[in-house]
Design a protein that fits this description.
The chain is 41% helix and 12% strand. The protein has 10 helices and 7 strands. It has helices at residues 9-23, 47-50, 54-59, 72-75, 91-94, 112-118, 134-139, 143-157, 174-191, 221-248, and strands at 64-70, 99-106, 127-131, 161-165, 194-196, 203-204, 207-208. The strands form 2 sheets. Strands 2-1-3-4-5 form a 5-stranded parallel β-sheet, sandwiched between helices. The chain has a two-stranded antiparallel ribbon with strand order 6-7. The termini are far apart.
Length: 258
């Protein structure tokens, strides 16, 4: 958050009261994967530009290089990922100790089509984690129309391994979210990518479990931490498992099978 210049004590006190009141208010309007106040700006292209993970890259140069793409559930609210990682950004809890976050693109309120149009290459990437679809459900965009944009994101990032995460419950239309995710999972299987539902801790049937979300779409900060820890395990397991599979395909003369 930006600090305002203090001019008068009285004005500052009134502003503080207003901010505290707003923070205590639970959203009552139809939620979107972005919330209110989406910030305009350019897509992130590297951690050095966004100032979020340069230190992690220095500390773990041999870590799995991971790029991420998504909406507010990846960016951390109604904002751009390029603004930096926050306690409500799952990558905050996944990076380091074997995982090197290298950038990507995420914007609150965006659809997979918007993400495909804005994403840019970020160099060599071992694993892409793509988590999108909630805003497509919100806007009534059918999966068949959204599907080509998943291919476009994957092609743009060019990662060695692709992990597509399921979307969380969407309490305003849980049946539509469940239908979208079912089609998404089948699509990912056809592509030979890895599908994971990291939201098991948050689900009560097709809805959010009590206490996990205040608005029926975004988890609490504790939920983002659990999400990050779950995706971290998936990333490390996927890259290790696929690496083992590739190694086992090496034949005696040193060539590889296709």
């Amino acid at each position: 958050m930006k600090r305002a210049n203090v001019v008068r004590v009285a004005v500052t006190s009134m502003a503080l009261v207003a901010v505290l009141s707003a923070c205590a208010t639970v959203p009552t309007t139809a939620p979107q994967a972005g919330g209110a106040g989406v910030v305009a700006g350019q897509p992130t292209t590297s951690p050095a530009e966004s100032g979020t993970s340069a230190k992690a890259a220095e500390n773990d140069p041999d870590g799995v290089r991971v790029a991420i793409v998504g909406d507010s559930l990846t960016a951390g609210g109604g904002r751009l990922l390029s603004a930096g990682l926050t306690p409500n950004t799952w990558m905050t809890y996944a990076m380091g100790s074997g995982i090197d976050y290298v950038g990507g693109y995420a914007k609150g309120g965006s659809t997979i089509e918007e993400q495909a149009a804005a994403a840019r290459p970020v160099g060599a990437v071992d694993a892409l984690v793509l988590m999108s679809g909630t805003n497509d459900v919100r806007l009534g965009i059918p999966f068949d129309k959204a599907a080509p944009s998943y291919d476009e994101v994957v092609s743009t990032i060019g990662a060695a391994h692709v992990i597509v995460a399921g979307i969380p419950p969407y309490d305003r239309n849980p049946a539509a979210a469940a239908r979208y995710e079912k089609k998404l999972e089948a699509f990912v299987a056809e592509r030979g990518w890895t599908f994971v539902d990291p939201w098991g801790f948050a689900r009560d049937g097709d809805r959010y479990a009590p206490g996990v979300s205040q608005d029926g779409i975004h988890p609490t900060t504790a939920g983002y931490r659990q999400l990050g820890e779950n995706l971290r395990r998936t990333i490390l397991d996927t890259v290790d498992r696929r690496g083992t599979e590739q190694a086992s395909a090496v034949v005696a003369d040193g060539s590889t099978t296709s």
